[in-house]
Protein backbone atom coordinates (compact mmCIF):
# COMPACT_ATOMS: atom_id res chain seq x y z
CA UNK A 1 0.00 0.00 0.00
CA UNK A 2 1.41 3.37 -1.06
CA UNK A 3 2.33 5.92 1.61
CA UNK A 4 0.14 9.01 1.10
CA UNK A 5 -0.02 12.40 2.84
CA UNK A 6 -3.75 12.44 3.62
CA UNK A 7 -4.88 9.08 4.93
CA UNK A 8 -8.49 10.21 5.31
CA UNK A 9 -8.82 10.84 1.57
CA UNK A 10 -9.55 8.28 -1.14
CA UNK A 11 -7.83 9.95 -4.09
CA UNK A 12 -4.56 8.52 -5.41
CA UNK A 13 -1.04 9.33 -4.27
CA UNK A 14 -0.31 11.58 -7.25
CA UNK A 15 -3.31 13.82 -6.49
CA UNK A 16 -2.50 13.94 -2.80
CA UNK A 17 1.16 14.80 -3.39
CA UNK A 18 0.15 17.64 -5.74
CA UNK A 19 -2.34 18.91 -3.12
CA UNK A 20 0.27 18.70 -0.37
CA UNK A 21 2.88 20.69 -2.28
CA UNK A 22 0.26 23.26 -3.31
CA UNK A 23 -0.53 23.67 0.40
CA UNK A 24 3.07 24.15 1.55
CA UNK A 25 4.54 25.87 -1.53
CA UNK A 26 4.86 29.27 0.15
CA UNK A 27 6.90 27.87 3.03
CA UNK A 28 8.71 25.06 1.20
CA UNK A 29 12.06 26.75 0.55
CA UNK A 30 12.35 28.09 4.10
CA UNK A 31 11.50 24.73 5.65
CA UNK A 32 13.83 22.85 3.30
CA UNK A 33 16.85 24.88 4.32
CA UNK A 34 15.86 25.30 7.96
CA UNK A 35 15.04 21.66 8.70
CA UNK A 36 18.22 20.43 7.01
CA UNK A 37 20.39 23.19 8.52
CA UNK A 38 21.30 24.17 4.96
CA UNK A 39 22.90 20.82 4.16
CA UNK A 40 20.42 20.32 1.30
CA UNK A 41 22.21 23.14 -0.55
CA UNK A 42 25.52 21.28 -0.29
CA UNK A 43 23.86 18.05 -1.47
CA UNK A 44 22.51 19.80 -4.58
CA UNK A 45 25.92 21.25 -5.40
CA UNK A 46 27.51 17.80 -5.07
CA UNK A 47 24.87 16.21 -7.30
CA UNK A 48 25.23 18.81 -10.07
CA UNK A 49 29.03 18.55 -9.94
CA UNK A 50 28.69 14.95 -11.14
CA UNK A 51 27.39 16.29 -14.47
CA UNK A 52 30.10 18.91 -14.91
CA UNK A 53 32.47 16.88 -17.07
CA UNK A 54 29.70 15.92 -19.50
CA UNK A 55 28.70 19.51 -20.28
CA UNK A 56 25.01 18.74 -21.01
CA UNK A 57 23.27 21.35 -23.15
CA UNK A 58 19.63 20.38 -22.56
CA UNK A 59 18.66 19.39 -19.01
CA UNK A 60 15.30 18.18 -17.73
CA UNK A 61 14.68 18.73 -14.00
CA UNK A 62 11.83 16.48 -12.85
CA UNK A 63 9.79 17.33 -9.73
CA UNK A 64 11.45 20.72 -10.04
CA UNK A 65 9.33 22.31 -7.31
CA UNK A 66 10.52 25.87 -6.76
CA UNK A 67 13.44 25.32 -9.16
CA UNK A 68 16.33 25.23 -6.66
CA UNK A 69 17.98 22.24 -8.37
CA UNK A 70 17.46 23.76 -11.82
CA UNK A 71 19.05 27.02 -10.67
CA UNK A 72 22.03 25.13 -9.24
CA UNK A 73 22.41 23.32 -12.59
CA UNK A 74 23.04 26.66 -14.35
CA UNK A 75 26.52 26.47 -12.84
CA UNK A 76 27.53 23.92 -15.50
CA UNK A 77 26.37 26.28 -18.26
CA UNK A 78 23.66 24.37 -20.18
CA UNK A 79 21.84 26.04 -23.05
CA UNK A 80 18.43 25.43 -21.49
CA UNK A 81 16.84 23.74 -18.50
CA UNK A 82 13.23 22.57 -18.50
CA UNK A 83 11.63 21.95 -15.11
CA UNK A 84 8.42 19.96 -14.68
CA UNK A 85 6.23 19.41 -11.63
CA UNK A 86 2.68 18.30 -10.80
CA UNK A 87 2.15 21.13 -8.28
CA UNK A 88 1.04 24.40 -9.83
CA UNK A 89 1.60 26.06 -6.46
CA UNK A 90 5.28 25.10 -6.42
CA UNK A 91 5.70 26.12 -10.07
CA UNK A 92 4.19 29.56 -9.33
CA UNK A 93 6.75 30.11 -6.54
CA UNK A 94 9.51 28.88 -8.85
CA UNK A 95 8.50 31.21 -11.70
CA UNK A 96 8.45 34.18 -9.34
CA UNK A 97 11.92 33.25 -8.09
CA UNK A 98 13.27 32.94 -11.65
CA UNK A 99 11.78 36.28 -12.65
CA UNK A 100 13.41 38.01 -9.66
CA UNK A 101 16.76 36.47 -10.54
CA UNK A 102 16.41 37.27 -14.25
CA UNK A 103 16.64 33.58 -15.18
CA UNK A 104 13.33 33.02 -16.96
CA UNK A 105 15.10 32.87 -20.33
CA UNK A 106 17.38 30.04 -19.15
CA UNK A 107 14.93 27.91 -17.18
CA UNK A 108 11.41 27.09 -18.34
CA UNK A 109 8.96 25.66 -15.80
CA UNK A 110 5.88 23.74 -16.88
CA UNK A 111 3.31 21.35 -15.53
CA UNK A 112 4.38 17.76 -16.13
CA UNK A 113 3.63 14.32 -14.77
CA UNK A 114 6.83 12.34 -14.15
CA UNK A 115 5.12 9.11 -15.23
CA UNK A 116 3.82 10.60 -18.50
CA UNK A 117 6.42 13.14 -19.55
CA UNK A 118 5.28 15.45 -22.39
CA UNK A 119 8.50 15.08 -24.40
CA UNK A 120 9.75 13.07 -27.38
CA UNK A 121 12.10 10.12 -26.96
CA UNK A 122 15.80 11.03 -26.68
CA UNK A 123 15.20 14.74 -25.96
CA UNK A 124 17.63 15.63 -23.15
CA UNK A 125 21.37 15.33 -22.49
CA UNK A 126 20.83 14.99 -18.74
CA UNK A 127 17.99 14.52 -16.28
CA UNK A 128 18.00 15.63 -12.65
CA UNK A 129 15.61 14.91 -9.78
CA UNK A 130 16.04 16.18 -6.22
CA UNK A 131 13.83 14.70 -3.50
CA UNK A 132 11.19 13.79 -6.05
CA UNK A 133 11.35 10.10 -6.97
CA UNK A 134 10.15 9.19 -3.48
CA UNK A 135 6.85 10.88 -4.37
CA UNK A 136 6.28 8.98 -7.62
CA UNK A 137 3.10 6.95 -7.57
CA UNK A 138 4.79 4.26 -9.64
CA UNK A 139 8.57 4.45 -9.16
CA UNK A 140 9.53 2.06 -11.96
CA UNK A 141 7.24 3.81 -14.46
CA UNK A 142 8.65 7.23 -13.56
CA UNK A 143 12.24 6.00 -13.91
CA UNK A 144 11.38 4.33 -17.23
CA UNK A 145 10.00 7.64 -18.50
CA UNK A 146 13.24 9.34 -17.51
CA UNK A 147 15.14 6.75 -19.52
CA UNK A 148 12.84 7.22 -22.50
CA UNK A 149 13.36 10.99 -22.84
CA UNK A 150 17.10 10.83 -22.12
CA UNK A 151 19.45 10.80 -25.11
CA UNK A 152 21.68 7.73 -25.59
CA UNK A 153 24.83 8.33 -23.55
CA UNK A 154 23.05 10.85 -21.35
CA UNK A 155 23.08 10.76 -17.55
CA UNK A 156 20.35 10.82 -14.95
CA UNK A 157 21.17 12.16 -11.49
CA UNK A 158 18.80 11.41 -8.62
CA UNK A 159 19.20 13.03 -5.19
CA UNK A 160 16.98 11.49 -2.53
CA UNK A 161 16.71 10.92 1.19
CA UNK A 162 17.90 7.55 2.45
CA UNK A 163 18.04 5.74 5.78
CA UNK A 164 21.24 5.84 7.89
CA UNK A 165 22.20 2.39 9.09
CA UNK A 166 25.09 3.07 11.49
CA UNK A 167 24.95 3.88 15.19
CA UNK A 168 24.44 6.60 16.43
CA UNK A 169 23.30 8.44 13.28
CA UNK A 170 20.51 5.93 12.70
CA UNK A 171 19.03 6.60 16.14
CA UNK A 172 19.49 10.39 15.97
CA UNK A 173 17.98 10.49 12.49
CA UNK A 174 14.88 8.54 13.51
CA UNK A 175 14.36 10.69 16.61
CA UNK A 176 14.65 13.91 14.57
CA UNK A 177 12.45 12.69 11.72
CA UNK A 178 9.72 11.35 14.03
CA UNK A 179 9.67 13.89 16.85
CA UNK A 180 11.08 17.23 15.71
CA UNK A 181 10.63 17.60 11.96
CA UNK A 182 6.84 16.94 11.91
CA UNK A 183 6.19 19.41 14.75
CA UNK A 184 8.23 22.24 13.21
CA UNK A 185 6.93 21.47 9.72
CA UNK A 186 3.30 21.51 10.86
CA UNK A 187 3.75 24.75 12.83
CA UNK A 188 5.37 26.64 9.93
CA UNK A 189 3.53 25.16 6.93
CA UNK A 190 0.10 24.86 8.63
CA UNK A 191 -0.32 21.51 6.87
CA UNK A 192 -0.96 18.75 9.39
CA UNK A 193 0.14 15.92 7.12
CA UNK A 194 3.05 17.13 4.95
CA UNK A 195 5.88 16.68 7.42
CA UNK A 196 4.47 13.45 8.80
CA UNK A 197 4.33 12.10 5.26
CA UNK A 198 8.01 12.97 4.71
CA UNK A 199 9.51 10.53 7.26
CA UNK A 200 6.91 7.89 6.40
CA UNK A 201 7.75 8.11 2.70
CA UNK A 202 11.50 7.98 3.39
CA UNK A 203 11.00 4.87 5.52
CA UNK A 204 9.02 3.14 2.76
CA UNK A 205 11.37 4.17 -0.07
CA UNK A 206 13.64 1.46 -1.56
CA UNK A 207 16.95 3.24 -1.07
CA UNK A 208 20.54 2.18 -1.66
CA UNK A 209 21.08 -1.01 -3.61
CA UNK A 210 17.31 -1.60 -3.80
CA UNK A 211 16.94 1.64 -5.77
CA UNK A 212 19.91 0.77 -7.99
CA UNK A 213 18.22 -2.54 -8.86
CA UNK A 214 15.06 -0.76 -10.06
CA UNK A 215 17.18 1.86 -11.85
CA UNK A 216 18.91 -0.90 -13.80
CA UNK A 217 15.71 -2.85 -14.47
CA UNK A 218 14.26 0.09 -16.44
CA UNK A 219 17.38 0.37 -18.60
CA UNK A 220 20.01 2.52 -16.89
CA UNK A 221 23.62 1.39 -17.09
CA UNK A 222 26.88 2.28 -15.31
CA UNK A 223 24.85 3.00 -12.20
CA UNK A 224 26.49 4.41 -9.09
CA UNK A 225 25.34 5.15 -5.56
CA UNK A 226 26.97 7.94 -3.52
CA UNK A 227 26.03 8.06 0.17
CA UNK A 228 26.00 11.54 1.74
CA UNK A 229 26.21 12.82 5.33
CA UNK A 230 26.32 9.46 7.13
CA UNK A 231 23.62 8.02 4.89
CA UNK A 232 20.96 10.69 5.41
CA UNK A 233 20.84 11.30 1.68
CA UNK A 234 22.08 9.57 -1.47
CA UNK A 235 22.94 10.46 -5.05
CA UNK A 236 22.25 7.87 -7.72
CA UNK A 237 23.58 8.17 -11.27
CA UNK A 238 22.91 6.12 -14.36
CA UNK A 239 23.57 6.39 -18.08
CA UNK A 240 21.42 5.45 -21.04
UniProtKB/TrEMBL annotation:
GO biological process: methylation
Protein origin, superkingdom: Bacteria
Database matches in InterPro entries: SAM-dependent_MTases_sf, UbiE/COQ5_MeTrFase, UbiE/COQ5_MeTrFase_CS
Molecular function terms from GO: 2-methoxy-6-polyprenyl-1,4-benzoquinol methyltransferase activity; demethylmenaquinone methyltransferase activity
Enzyme class: transferase
Catalysis performed (reactions): a 2-demethylmenaquinol + S-adenosyl-L-methionine = a menaquinol + S-adenosyl-L-homocysteine + H(+)
PROSITE patterns membership: SAM_MT_UBIE (PS51608), UBIE_1 (PS01183), UBIE_2 (PS01184)
Keyword Methyltransferase recorded: yes
Family matches, as Gene3D superfamilies: Vaccinia Virus protein VP39
Function statement: Methyltransferase required for the conversion of demethylmenaquinol (DMKH2) to menaquinol (MKH2).
NCBIfam families for the chain: MenG_MenH_UbiE (TIGR01934), PRK00216.1-5 (NF001244)
Family: Belongs to the class I-like SAM-binding methyltransferase superfamily. MenG/UbiE family.
Entry protein name: Demethylmenaquinone methyltransferase
Organism name: Pontibacter silvestris
Designated gene of the protein: ubiE
Amino acid sequence: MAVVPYKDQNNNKKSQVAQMFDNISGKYDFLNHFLSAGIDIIWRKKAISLLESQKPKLILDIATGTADFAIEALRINPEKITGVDISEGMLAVGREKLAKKGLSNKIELQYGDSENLPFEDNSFDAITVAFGVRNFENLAKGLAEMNRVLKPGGTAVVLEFSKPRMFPMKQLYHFYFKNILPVVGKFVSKDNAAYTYLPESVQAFPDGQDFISIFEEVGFKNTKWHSLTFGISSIYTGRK
